[in-house]
Protein 1
Amino acid sequence: MTLRHFLADDDLSPTDQAEVLALAAELKAAPFSRRPLDGPHSAALIFDKPTLRSQSSFAAGIAELGGHPMLVDGRLAGIGVRESVADVARILGRQAAVIIWRTFAQADLVAMAEHAGVPVVNALTDDYHPCQILADLQTVAEHRGALAGQVFTYLGDGANNMAQSYLLGGATAGLHVRIAAPPGFHPDPAVVERAAAIAAGTGGSVTVADDLGLAEGADVLATDTWVSMGQENDGLDREAPFRPYQVDEALLGRAAADAIVLHCLPAYRGKEITAEVLDGPRAVVWDEAENRRHAQKAVIAWLLERSRDGA
Ligand code: NVA
């Protein structure tokens, strides 16, 4: 059996991602049409950081797939403290058909996947948020009618999980991904390199700069909090350098006339985005939040099927 995991966006090839997104659309139209967790099998859900959209969308989605969402309290379990990640993985892999984990270090998630014996899904780490990007791609496809060739500009903290996942997942989908971020908050160059290599094969492209001109003519504008979970006391000025990158009406005016606006939420109105834009007609953030459920159901069903087939 070949186990498939979803630890970072580029664990899915362009073909894989297209299959998952097609399944997400199918599941949105017919939510109970796939029941890979019927039994019910359990799906372990662990959150080491705050959550609203992830916990609710995974729990609802797992139930719709016929399964049981098994909430595991990371603090009670003491993952990496009371017992090693490897031992926790061995235990949960004997209880659950899939493990979904939100944590800090990507390396811990990788260790979980190495020892679980069942598919492991990244529900956000410091480095990536790939389930959110699948939902965002589904939302872009719904509102723009296509993915490949769309100009997708993200503004704000270019070093965070969302920016890095947009680079990898967006390049996989053939988007022209532009990251506009202040100096000192650019993505890891190794991630940019990986994304550029993917884009070379999909017809997409990758641009990282501190230049607000990257918003010019964009089909999609996206932003995210300037202070990600776990960075609250990192000693960096997370206000002044980001101010020019706020998504406001003026910035939106530089994008395409029919551009849409994404935000993974929670949003801080008056910081990375104005209330006018977030609550205005171009923002599609509630569709984006709903699509978490459909996209995650699709990736879970796809991973289980591939892992069973040994494909
Ligand atoms: N970059 C944000 C995403 C929240 C969904 C964070 O990590 O807090």
Protein 2
Amino acid sequence: MPATEPTERTAPVITFENVVKRFGDHTVLDHLNFEVRKGERVTLIGPSGSGKTTILRLVMTLEDLTDGFIYINGEPFTYEMRNGRRVERRPKDVAKVATKIGMVFQQFNLFPNMTVLENIIEAPVHVLGKSKGEAVTRAKELLDLVGLADKVDAHPSRLSGGQQQRVAIARALAMDPEILLLDEVTSALDPELVGEVLGVLRNIAENTDITMLIVTHEMQFAQEVSHRVLMFDQGRIIEDAEPSVMFTNPQEKRTKDFLQAVL
Ligand code: ADP
């Protein structure tokens, strides 16, 4: 299925509305507002500590919001307003929405005691209730997609970092996510293994309509796959532009300085 170009009229899939996140006294995200539309691939860039990973972890409900709302497909995700009061949604409702969201981490986080196949079918069988046969068929298709069809029965410890990360990508895709969150997925890899993982992600970006929110230091990759790039500094978006503009003609001095340091 060819990827379609998201436009202004495409529905928002992720909406951040006045999102505040504090750890103790430290305000990490300061009234953050942005939208990601269906099929859009948005990359977050900015200095270390500017809050990028926290954004992904909030979308994945690995962190609680301090204030504000996150909407998934227009629905308030973890909180709703009742009689003017903020009420936490039932965990069951949140869990249902969360199955539409997949995340790949810097550290591959595979289950070490399971084979590659078992890693991939675990959630489709136990969370989505797929039959084992159906889950295995899909897992094999996905292993083919990430170039690891011959590793079905291998244990993660037998694989290189790049191979483990490709299994982690297959595992995330096995849940048929609408949204894929990629958190510095090549940062823990030896340099010679980065290319194979980025190659798989490029292929997925080109051939699916999955909405992606990406944190990466690989600026070339960001430029190639993103529809839009958001530059963060101190918990705020300071520039929001298409990659062709962000990487060649940024408007903000802080963006210029950051890109000069990393490119
Ligand atoms: P980035 O991804 O842009 O490098 P992060 O979102 O990882 O930034 O972190 C933003 C800030 O939040 C950092 O100052 C970090 O130390 C702080 N932070 C992140 N997670 C926690 C936590 N669990 N407890 C306390 N501080 C945290």
